[in-house]
User: What shape does this take?
Amino acid sequence: MSTETLQSPAVHSREFGRSTYARWLGKVTDGICGLAAAGTMLVVLTQVASRLLGAPISWTEELTRACFIWMIFIGLASSMRHADAARVTIFMEALPKPLRRLSLPIYLVTSLGFFALMGWTGANMVRQQLMMNESIATLGWPSWVIGMVMPVSAVLAILCTLESLHQHRATIALQGDDLPSPQKATP
Amino acid sequence: MSITLLLVFLGLTALGVPLAIALGLSGVASVFLFTSTPLNLLSESMFSAMNSFLLVAVPLFLLVGQLMERGGVADRIFDFAHAAVGWLPGGMGHVNVASSVVFGGISGSSVADIASLGAVEINAMTRHGYDKGYAVGMTLTTSTLSSIIPPSILMVIAGSIANQSIGLLLLAGLIPGLFIAASLMVYNHIYSVRKGVCKPTPFSGRVLVRAGLRAILPMMTPVILMIGILDGFFTPTEAAAIAVVYTFVIAAVVYRQIQWRDIAPMLIETARTSGNILFIAATAKLAAWVFAYDGLPVKVGQALGAITTNPTLIMLLIFLFLVVVGMFMDAIAAMFILIPVLLPPAVALGADPIHLLVIVVITLTLGLVTPPVGVCLFAVAKVADMSIEEVIKGAMAPVSILVLSILALVVFPVLVIGPLRLFGMY
Assistant: This one.
């Protein structure tokens, strides 16, 4: 008998709802990441090609930076979904297992608190860009088109951090057998 | 103010808080406690840190690494290295070094070196009579070459932080990388002769040519990159994009190892890894603002100047400091925090900026292979199915050679900047 049939309808419905939500969250973050990464590369190539053909395009550098900024900030939200953020765990791992449990609340409070602050200050930045009617020099687009990534990525990072608890709880809480390799940022 | 930031950062880091978040929160705490600057500075500094065309090279080089990793390049490089130096006494150890030199010239990532070549190198060495600990130690040590030899992702980041020519800095890593490789080969030769392992075999020019032709296309990547950058055909960022197209054509069209459907996952993975790496850069900008506001570089300069005004001794002090920092802190995070603090005073006291940046990158690379948090150390232990303690034991001698080589690069700046000056590039 499968586990699914043992669940009550309420639990089953909640789990189904959660997995659908997780799937969509993944699709949204991965989709933006993929598009932004592809965009970054294509625009840089356009820049090279146009210059080599003797007809340089003026807006490519700005558009590259725009795609890049979106890629990085949504990419960081995506890395939170996979609990990939670089961290030093040796000191906490050295603690007895019950104390190690503190890792989870510490990780959650600091991460969620930081992203909330980033979202709030990011929204202020966008409001300021709107009020001042700022625009990007060559592209002529309003600046908030790029600035918007700050609050958007902050919200996505909060959702992704919460979602990571379902898939990577043991890793975050330093309780699993497969403890994270430390400091994964440097390639 | 700077001290508060550092203490809060270290405290949060010790509690297992992600490095970027620890850096951001400590920056916010310092700004909030010691200045009347609005906290909007957080988003503004993070945003402006990423508003950089130079940093776009980072994800592009990561994508090159991924394409090469999945493109069936590792075997060809290993076969070529085998044909080129495998006939020497201690051949397989030399092959290990040479493979990493060539691979480093393509990928720029030490972890990718271990993931792609690690198992092949370790198995080949143990099959030829090497002790497994030594084979693993050598593989671990040679993986650092990928972060030094161009195109090195760490050099790109260091150059963008210090506002120095990325092309020049990438090139400046070449001779030190080859110097370290040569030192490791000399040590390997002595080790192999003493232990009587891996006796010399006849050299075959035909095998070398055949292996060279099989590997020629990926090996051309760094050549195209460096010629393109140095001759002014394209910027480092544009060069990285060209490298993506070139490696994609090799992997997908020539070697047929990559399908169209593989592209989307690779782009997503690239964005995620870049977001992870550069998140630290984004929050470090606020820390750099705090250090500048507090006048930390000037204070560090005064402190250094009080100890010594000899540039070589200053470089030695910085080297020792970075060895300790690198053992506990991620290389990228350390670069973003320390380069703005160390570079201006060290240069004011007579150190050369390119020499200093190369030493910073290479010394922090050492942190990738040293306990307690060396990411390559963990990667190679996984690949070799050995405990961390066993790996450390096997790596003691090769890592010592690496440290001595870096020390030579610190003391003799001519090894780093001499070749650049010789060819009129600096």
